[in-house]
Design goal:
Strand content: 25-35%
Largest sheet: 6 strands, mixed
CATH topology of the largest domain: Rossmann fold
Structural class: alpha/beta
Number of strands: 14
CATH architecture of the largest domain: 3-Layer(aba) Sandwich
CATH superfamily of the largest domain: P-loop containing nucleotide triphosphate hydrolases
Number of domains: 3
Length: about 300
């Protein structure tokens, strides 16, 4: 069995009486694109700060490439790229100068650094504005440069904390494409967001955080299997015989709502819907309305936390 790139082991973080993290544990395998989904205040940024050596945990530990993260682990830091939620680029410098600066922090010099800076500028789509001051950039361009600054030293593990906050759709797509390319090239990625569609689009495995706890951690299909599908329909009149016939269908649960509205919970809509239609036909009952609801990440989140994702 290969060693995980990242191991988060029972990590707690307290600020006085406030517990920001409450025993969070998970692993990220080499080459994985792992998503951390949760609302603002869930503890995602605190956790990434601990992983990237900026904060000490109150209890528990973090291991990267099998080594325990410590404040003095400089060599380990060279394996990390961190894209913070707040912009960490210098407005008075050009994009090229920013990337040179961050490359030099990691010990890069000369022709190798110049070539790498040019590669990163191309990767984040800023070649045509490479020598303009960053203060003149749009928000989306600054976000793309923020990503580029984390890539100059060729990290093996990339941590992204809400990297698309406040960007236009074009820049968001460019960031998505860049992250997918990096992952395809072997970079392990931890991607945090409170946008479900981002995590669902990018990540095969997802951890759901809320109030400092990891509520669930699984592949997207695994998370969706936690919930059943719903067939919701309305008929002119609900009879006792109809109820009995529906309850006799395999692998379903009947829920009665107000008036003539019924709900059937099931694992497989495609298999259950024809059986339900047969019952209604046999009893000469006409549908007034019909809708289906498949499991999605928002429903999983609501089921796990009891509140909307963007509260």
């Amino acid at each position: 069995m290969t060693m995980p790139v990242l191991e988060v082991i029972a990590v707690h973080k307290n600020y006085g009486a406030h517990a920001a993290l409450k025993g969070v544990s998970f692993c990220v395998e080499a080459g994985e694109m792992f998503g951390l989904l949760g609302p603002n205040g869930a503890g995602k940024t605190t956790l990434l700060s601990i992983i990237s050596h900026l904060l000490e945990p109150s209890a528990g530990e973090v291991r990267i490439f099998g080594q325990k993260v410590t404040p003095n682990g400089l060599e380990l830091r060279r394996q990390l790229g961190v894209v913070p939620q707040e912009l960490a680029v210098y407005g008075e410098l050009t994009a090229r100068e920013n990337l040179h600066f961050f490359g030099e922090i990691y010990g890069m010099r000369g022709a190798a650094l110049r070539q790498r800076v040019q590669e990163v500028l191309a990767a984040v789509g800023l070649e045509d504005r490479a020598d303009s001051r960053v203060a003149t950039y749009s928000g989306g361009m600054k976000r793309r440069l923020n990503l580029g600054a984390a890539l100059v030293h060729r990290p093996r593990l990339l941590l992204l904390d809400e990297p698309t906050t406040g960007v236009d759709p074009q820049s968001r797509n460019h960031i998505f494409e860049g992250v997918r390319r990096l992952n395809a090239d072997g970079v392990t990625v931890v991607y945090t967001s409170h946008y479900m569609e981002e995590v669902q689009s990018l990540c095969r495995r997802v951890g759901i955080m809320d109030q400092g706890c990891l509520k669930a951690c699984d592949t997207l299909p695994g998370l969706l299997q936690k919930l059943q599908s719903v067939i919701r329909f309305r008929i002119p009149h609900v009879t006792p015989h109809l109820r009995e016939r529906i309850k006799g269908l395999p692998e379903i649960t009947l829920r009665e709502r107000a008036g003539d509205l019924l709900e059937v919970e099931c694992r497989d809509v495609k298999a259950t819907l024809p059986r339900l239609m047969t019952v209604l036909t046999d009893l000469h009952l006409a549908l007034v309305s019909l809708e289906t609801e498949e499991p999605n990440l928002e429903r999983v989140f609501l089921d796990l936390t009891g509140r909307a994702l963007r509260d």
